[in-house]
Amino acid sequence: MSTIARQAVLLAWKDTRIFFRDRAALAFAFLLPFVFVIGFTLALRDVGPENEALHFTIATQESVGVSVQAVETIVTATDGLAAIRDYDDALAAVDAGEIDGFVAFPPDFTQRFLSGETATLEVVVGEVPPAEEAALRGFAQEIAVRFSEAQATISAVVALGSPQDAAAAMEELFSDDGGPAIGLRVEQVGEIAPFNASNFTLPGYLTMFVFFTAAMGAEALARERQTHTLERLMANGVRRESLIVGKFLAGGIIGVTQVAVMWTVGALAFGIDLGASPVAVVLLSLLMVVASAAFGVMLASFVGNVRTASAAGVLTSLVLAPIGGSWWPLFITPPFMQSLARLTPHGWANGGLNKLMLFGAEFTDVGPEMAALVVFAAVFLAVALWRFRLAPSG
Question: Which of 89, 153, 218, 319 shows its CA 20 to 30 Å from the CA of 52?
């Protein structure tokens, strides 16, 4: 084991020195990713959240009754922040994505309210962010509280007074100027932070180019196989396992350097936010490097010459990158694409980085992504050990 480790380290050091002396390789691995990041960051600089007030839609399934007058009172009291809509029309609008959702009074609301029974409100929501759904449910809760207070008042008057007093209380509660005080108060509790597109463009292209560089490393290994350099190494006592581990370590060293450079420049020049757990971002990035290095060695085990290796490196990189969310955030893609992304290490890496950097996830929230990258690395290495050959095929 010590022999394999020593030989692997020497081979990795040799490959790493060759890589860092190649100016074209350095430009590809370190300069080109920033060209993409700068270009797409500028293109998306005006995309982001806006500081707009929420608007609510309210409907009733009654044609007459307490809810009809209540809806009109609510719309008047909210100064245009709530709008009346027909129930069926509101349902169609939610399905079409025209509105996020709405609050509706059921068809038996008046009967239940006047009889002292529990009357529920219906909250209909589409596929909306959790914050908007919470706001809609909060609006419904505010309406329910006001009507509960009104119902309690009427019940008390009925218990303590005469039917005439109850009728007067009802008229007062639901008159134009005395209805249940249901309104909206808009408060600005802080400015929305300026949107920084680099927070998802940089992680995406970091993932893409770390795997791209590792895949292109298969070309160098194929060249050594084609020129019988690997066979000469074996003749000098280098073990087959040492070659595989050495190539894996070289890919890992290069990948770690890419990660260090891109995160450092990203923080200093692009102002990226590493989220609530920078440690998780770094660890997830390192596991991505491990998976990419294993992927490069595995890819090399399937190719027999330089031309095939080069084509395979480009093809796999350009296919896996968009599927795995390197070109666009996975959370804006259809569900089937998000499911497809889970078949790639890119998808798990980008998904975890998006969680941490865009949605405030903690370290434990990206445990599945970290575990998936470890599994990918183990599978890639196992396949490489099984498939690796010294002589060129054909």
Answer: 89
